[in-house]
Design goal:
- The complex is a heterodimer.
- Chain A is α/β, with parallel strands linked by helices.
- Chain A has helices at 42-50, 70-73, 89-99, 104-117, 133-144, 163-178, 190-196, 214-221, 237-247, 268-281, 296-304, and strands at 2-13, 16-27, 31-35, 57-62, 74-77, 151-155, 182-187, 199-204, 207-212, 226-230, 253-255, 258-262, 288-292.
- Chain A has two domains: 2-220, 3-Layer(aba) Sandwich (Rossmann fold); 224-293, Alpha-Beta Plaits (2-Layer Sandwich), CATH 3.30.70.
- In chain A, the strands form three sheets. Chain A has a six-stranded mixed sheet, with helices on both faces. Chain A has a four-stranded antiparallel sheet with strand order 11-12-10-13, with no helix packed on it. In chain A, strands 2-1-4 form a three-stranded antiparallel sheet, covered by helices on one side.
- In chain A, a hairpin with a 2-residue loop joins strand 11 and strand 12 (258-262).
- Chain B has 17 helices and seven strands.
- In chain B, helix 12 crosses helix 13 and helix 13 (480-504) packs parallel to helix 17 (569-589).
- Classes of the chains: A alpha/beta, B alpha/beta.
C-alpha cells in the first residue's frame, strides 16, 4: 500500500525553484531515504509531505484511500531536539502524549514503554536539558513516537552522535521497521542510508535524480572496484604516465600519497599485481593497498558529481 | 588585545541581532519622543486646556466669573447643579469641579472643589491649579476692590479737602457778597426815586422853565415901561386929585338942590381910584423892584436851570446805573444760586462718600484678607490606595502577561517545540487557548497576591519599623465577578499582545526589547505615571486609546468608582477589540 505518493511536486519561492516536478511513492513498511547535499530540496519535500508547506504545483497523497487523521498517523523526528528543556524526561513525554490526544489511561503505559525502549528510564526525572546529546536525541524520538505513528520522518537522525549511539539508533530504526512503521530518513550519511534504507531517492538542486533500492543504485551507478595504493611521496609523473599507457586507462589518478587504479578491464587484477611489482622495482615503497568496492558514495558522486559527507 | 577581542565579540554579537540593533538605536528616539510628549505638561501653555466644571449656585459676582472664564489655562464648563457636575466628573467631561456658593462680593466666597479621586494625581493636581487660579483671581479681585476703595478714598480725600476750602471760600464770599448786596440794596433803597416822578418833575420844570422864559422876555421888555408906571400913576393920581378938587369946587359951585350925590360919588370914586392907584403904584414899585430883582436873578436862575438840567441828566444816568446795579444784583443772586447748587453737590458728594464708607464698613475684613474659603470634596468615597492597586495590577499584568507570553512563545519556537505542537493532532485553537489560559492563571495569581496585600489587614503582634498591620485593608464596592472578569479581560489582552510581539520577532532578547518598547511608552502615556492631562490634546487622544490606559481606566472604574462593567463598555470593548486584532494578526502570521 502506498503510504506516500508525491506526484509532480514543484515548489518555488519567488523566482527561485527549490523543487522541480518531483515524483515518488513510498510503500508501507519501507525505510525511504532522501539523499542529497544541502539545497537539494530534501527539507522542502519533507515539509510538503508533512503538510507544513504547500506545493506550488503537484500534490502529495498520504495513506492513499484511507480516511485518517494524518496528524495522528504521522510523526517527525526533527534533527534538532524539540522539547521543553526545563521539563523532566517523563514530563516531556507525558505532555506531548496528552497533546497528541492519547487517552489518559494510555499515557503512562506508553510513556513507560518508550522510556524503556529508548533506555531513558534511568533519566525519567532528569531535566531534559541536562541529558547528554545522544539521550536528548532519544528523548526527541520518544516524544515523536508517543502517539504511535505509522509514518515517521527522521531528519538527519544521527548527526553529531558518536558511533556507539549511531549503532543504537540504527537498531531502534530497524525496530520500528519491524514494528511495521513506514520511515522516511533524510541523511547525509551514505553508510547509514545504505544500511537502513530499503529505497533511496537521490536529489540535487530540487530535482529527483534517481530512485531505487540501494543495491540497485550501486550496481547501476556505483561504478567499479578501485585498487588504492598508499605510496609515501606519491608516484612521479612519468611513472604515472607509463602506468596509464600500459593499462591504456586514463582514469588512473594519483593524489598526494594515493594512487587509484580502477578495475575497468578484464584481468585487471593480474595487471594491477604486475604494476605493483613494477612499482616496487622502481623503488616505490607501497605501505598499504586496499580494494574499494563501489557504494552509495560512489553512486552519489557519479550521479551528482558531488562528494558526500563521510561518517565521523 | 584579548580585551579588545572580547569587546569586539560583544559588539559583533549585538550587531548580529538585527532587530535588536534597530530597537537599540530606536529606543532613545522613541523613548525621548514619547516621554517628551508625555511631559508636555511641564510647559503649562502646551498642556491641553483644563476643563473645569462649575456650578454658580448664587448670584456670584460676574466679574470674578468672567475673569475665571477668561483664564487661558482653564476651560470653564457651566453645570446647572451639583449632580450634573458630578456626572461630568464621572464621565471625565471635566477634570475638576467648582461649586460657587458665595452670593455677593461683600461676603466670603465659599467654593466647593470637587476632584476625581479615581486618579491619584491629575484631578487633584488640576483641582489645585484651579484653586490657585481662583485664589489668584479672587485675591486679584480683592486687591482690585481694595485698590478701588483706596483710590476712592484718596480721591474723596483730595476732593474733599479742596471742597472744604472751596466751601470756606464760598462761605466767606457769600457772606461778603450778602453784606455788600444788603448794603448796596439799602443804599439803593435810600436813593431810590420814582423815575416817573423825576420825569413829571422834569416836565413841570421844563414847563416852568419855558413859562419863565416866556414871562421873562416880556417882563424884561416891559421893565422900562413898568419903571415909568409909578410916575405915570402919580400923574394919573395928581390928575385925579385935580379932578376931584375940581369936582369939589364944582360941587360947591353947584347949586344947592342939585343933585350933587353923583358928583360926590364920582369924587369918591376918584378918591378910591386914587387909593387904588396908590396901591398900584406901590405894587408897581414892588413889581419894578421885583422885575429888577428878577432881572438881577436871571443869571442865577439860568445857573440853577443849568444845575437842575445837570441834576436831571445825572438822575437819568443814576436811574440807568441803578438798573444796571439791579441787573448785577440779579446776576449775583444767580451766582449765589449756582454756588448754592455747588454746595448742594458737595453736600451730595459728602453724603455719597459717607454712604460709601458705610458700604465699605459692611465689607467683612476677612473677605479682603481671605476672599475665598475652599472646601475640598472627592467624588468617590474610596481610599486613595485603591488607585495604586489598580495601577499596580495593570503594570504587573502587562509585565507578566506580555513579557512572559512573548518570551515563552519564542522559547518554544527556538526549542522547536512549536513545530512539534504544530504537527500534533491538537488544533491551533486548543493550543492557543491552552497557552492563553496558562498565562492567565499566572496573571490571576499575581492579581490575587496584589489583592491579598491590598484588601487584607492583619494586625502584627509587634510593630516592624512602624508597620502594625500586614496589608492595606482596602475597601471597594466593586462587584467581585465583574472585577474578576475585568482582570481576565485585561490579562488576555496583554497575553494576546505578547503573542503578537512573539510572532514578529525571532529571539527572546528581541522579544524582551520589543515588549519593553511597547510597555515603557505605554506606561508613561497611560496616565499611571503622569496624568494624561499633562499631555497635548492629540497625545491625550492617542493615550486614551492605548491598551494600558484602557485597562487602567477599566480597573479604576470598577475598584474606585464602583461602576459596573456595562458602564465601562468602551474600555471593555476596546480591550476585546485589541485581543481580536492581536489574535487575528498572530493567526495570519501563522507562527504556530
Amino acid at each position: 500500500m502506498k503510504i506516500v505518493s508525491v506526484q509532480n511536486v514543484s515548489k518555488s519561492y519567488g523566482a527561485k525553484k527549490v523543487l522541480d516536478t518531483v515524483s515518488f511513492d513510498i510503500e508501507e513498511k519501507e525505510i525511504f531515504g532522501l539523499l542529497g547535499s544541502n539545497g537539494a530540496g530534501k527539507s522542502t519535500i519533507t515539509s510538503i509531505i508533512l503538510g507544513l508547506e504547500k506545493p506550488s504545483s503537484g500534490k502529495v497523497v498520504l495513506f492513499e484511500g484511507q480516511k485518517v487523521n494524518l496528524k495522528k498517523k504521522v510523526a517527525l523526528v526533527p534533527q534538532d531536539t524539540a522539547f521543553y528543556k526545563d521539563f523532566s524526561v517523563e514530563k516531556n513525554i507525558k505532555f506531548f502524549a496528552s497533546v497528541c490526544g492519547l487517552q489518559h489511561n494510555k499515557i503512562k503505559p506508553r510513556v513507560d514503554f518508550l522510556m524503556n525502549w529508548l533506555n531513558l528510564s534511568d533519566f525519567k526525572d532528569a531535566k531534559a536539558g541536562n541529558l547528554s546529546g545522544g539521550y536528548q536525541r532519544l528523548l526527541n524520538i520518544a516524544i515523536s513516537l508517543v502517539h504511535d505513528p505509522e509514518l515517521i520522518f527522521l531528519d538527519e537522525p544521527t548527526v553529531g552522535l558518536d558511533p556507539k549511539m549511531r549503532q543504537m539508533f540504527w537498531v531502534k530504526i530497524k525496530d520500528l521497521k519491524e514494528a511495521g512503521k513506514t520511515i522516511i530518513i533524510t541523511t547525509h550519511y551514505m553508510d547509514e542510508a545504505e544500511k537502513l534504507c530499503t529505497k533511496l531517492a537521490l536529489m540535487k538542486k530540487g530535482k529527483l535524480l534517481t530512485i531505487g533500492k540501494p543495491i540497485e543504485l550501486i550496481s547501476q551507478y556505483g561504478g567499479i572496484k578501485v585498487m588504492i595504493f598508499n605510496i609515501p611521496g606519491g608516484v612521479r609523473g612519468e611513472d604515472l604516465q607509463k602506468i596509464k599507457s600500459v593499462l591504456n586507462q586514463s582514469t588512473i589518478v594519483s593524489r598526494d600519497d594515493l594512487l587509484f587504479i580502477p578495475f575497468e578491464q578484464e584481468h585487471s587484477f593480474e595487471k594491477v599485481i604486475a604494476i605493483t611489482e613494477w612499482l616496487m622495482k622502481k623503488g616505490y615503497n607501497i605501505s598499504s593497498s586496499i580494494t574499494k568496492e563501489p557504494n552509495l558514495e560512489d553512486v552519489f558522486l557519479n550521479i551528482t558529481g558531488e562528494g558526500m559527507k563521510q561518517p565521523e | 588585545m584579548k580585551l579588545i577581542d572580547i569587546i569586539w565579540k560583544e559588539i559583533s554579537l549585538i550587531k548580529a541581532q538585527k532587530i535588536a540593533l534597530i530597537l537599540i538605536f530606536l529606543y532613545p528616539f522613541i523613548v525621548v519622543g514619547l516621554l517628551g510628549s508625555a511631559f508636555t505638561g511641564v510647559d503649562v501653555s502646551k498642556m491641553g486646556q483644563m476643563k473645569i466644571g462649575y456650578v454658580n449656585q448664587l448670584s456670584f459676582d460676574s466679574e470674578i466669573l468672567d475673569t475665571l472664564i477668561g483664564n487661558k489655562s482653564m476651560s470653564i464648563v457651566e453645570y446647572p447643579d451639583e449632580n450634573s457636575l458630578r456626572n461630568g466628573l464621572y464621565n471625565k467631561t471635566v477634570i475638576s469641579g467648582i461649586i460657587l456658593r458665595g452670593d455677593s462680593p461683600n461676603k466670603q466666597l465659599k467654593v466647593d472643589l470637587l476632584y476625581d479621586n479615581s486618579n491619584l494625581l491629575s484631578s487633584r493636581f488640576f483641582m489645585e491649579i484651579a484653586k490657585a487660579i481662583i485664589q489668584k483671581t479672587t485675591v486679584d479681585f480683592a486687591q482690585q476692590q481694595l485698590g478701588q476703595i483706596w483710590s476712592t478714598i484718596n480721591s474723596f480725600g483730595s476732593n474733599i479737602n479742596q471742597e472744604i476750602k472751596n466751601v470756606e471760600d464760598y462761605k466767606k464770599k457769600l457772606i461778603e457778597a450778602e453784606s455788600s448786596l444788603n448794603e448796596l440794596e439799602s443804599k439803593l433803597s435810600a436813593i431810590e426815586y420814582d423815575t416817573n416822578d423825576v420825569n413829571s418833575l422834569k416836565s413841570s420844570y421844563t414847563k416852568f422853565k419855558s413859562e419863565y422864559e416866556s414871562l421873562k422876555g416880556p417882563l424884561l421888555e416891559n421893565k422900562e415901561s413898568l419903571k415909568k408906571l409909578p410916575s405915570e400913576i402919580d400923574d394919573i393920581s395928581s390928575t385925579l386929585s385935580t379932578m376931584a378938587n375940581d369936582l369939589e369946587s364944582i360941587s360947591s359951585v353947584l347949586p344947592e338942590g342939585t343933585d350933587k350925590a353923583k358928583l360926590y360919588e364920582q369924587i369918591n370914586r376918584i378918591n378910591q381910584i386914587q387909593s387904588t392907584m396908590s396901591s398900584w403904584k406901590m405894587m408897581s414899585t414892588q413889581l419894578i423892584d421885583l422885575t429888577d430883582k428878577i432881572s438881577d436873578d436871571t443869571s442865577e436862575i439860568n445857573k440853577s436851570f443849568s444845575k437842575i438840567d445837570a441834576i436831571f441828566e445825572k438822575a437819568t444816568l443814576g436811574a440807568q446805573s441803578i438798573s444796571e446795579i439791579k441787573v448785577m444784583i440779579a446776576q449775583s443772586r444767580v451766582y449765589k444760586s449756582e454756588i448754592e447748587e455747588k454746595l448742594n453737590s458737595s453736600s451730595t458728594l459728602l453724603t455719597k462718600f459717607s454712604g460709601q464708607l458705610v458700604e465699605f464698613s459692611k465689607i467683612d475684613p476677612k473677605v479682603i484678607a481671605q476672599p475665598v474659603v475652599f472646601y475640598e470634596g472627592k467624588i468617590f468615597n474610596v481610599d486613595p490606595f485603591g488607585i495604586l492597586v489598580s495601577n499596580a495590577l495593570v503594570v504587573v499584568l502587562i509585565l507578566t502577561c506580555m513579557l512572559l507570553t512573548s518570551i515563552i512563545f519564542i522559547m518554544e519556537r527556538t526549542e522547536n517545540v512549536t513545530l512539534r505542537l504544530e504537527l500534533s493532532p491538537s488544533s491551533k485553537v486548543i493550543l492557543f487557548f491552552g497557552k492563553i489560559i496558562g498565562q492567565l492563571i499566572i496573571a490571576l495569581i499575581e492579581a490575587g497576591i496584589i489583592f491579598a496585600v491590598a484588601f487584607a489587614k492583619i494586625p502584627l503582634p509587634f510593630a516592624i519599623m512602624g508597620v502594625t498591620h500586614l496589608g492595606f485593608g482596602l475597601v471597594t464596592t466593586a462587584n467581585p465577578i465583574e472585577l474578576f472578569s475585568a482582570i481576565v479581560l485585561v490579562s488576555i489582552t496583554f497575553i494576546c499582545m505578547g503573542l503578537l510581539i512573539a510572532s514578529f520577532v525571532k529571539n527572546q532578547s528581541t522579544a524582551i526589547l520589543t515588549s519593553l518598547l511597547v510597555i515603557v511608552p505605554m506606561l508613561f502615556l497611560s496616565g499611571i505615571v503622569l496624568p494624561l492631562e499633562f499631555m497635548e490634546t492629540n497625545m491625550q487622544l492617542i493615550s486614551s486609546g492605548l491598551p494600558m490606559t484602557l485597562a487602567n481606566n477599566l480597573l479604576i472604574g470598577l475598584i474606585i468608582k464602583g461602576l459596573s462593567i456595562t458602564q465601562l463598555w468602551f474600555e471593555a470593548s476596546m480591550l476585546i477589540f485589541y485581543c481580536v486584532i492581536a489574535l487575528l494578526l498572530v493567526f495570519l502570521k501563522n507562527k504556530y
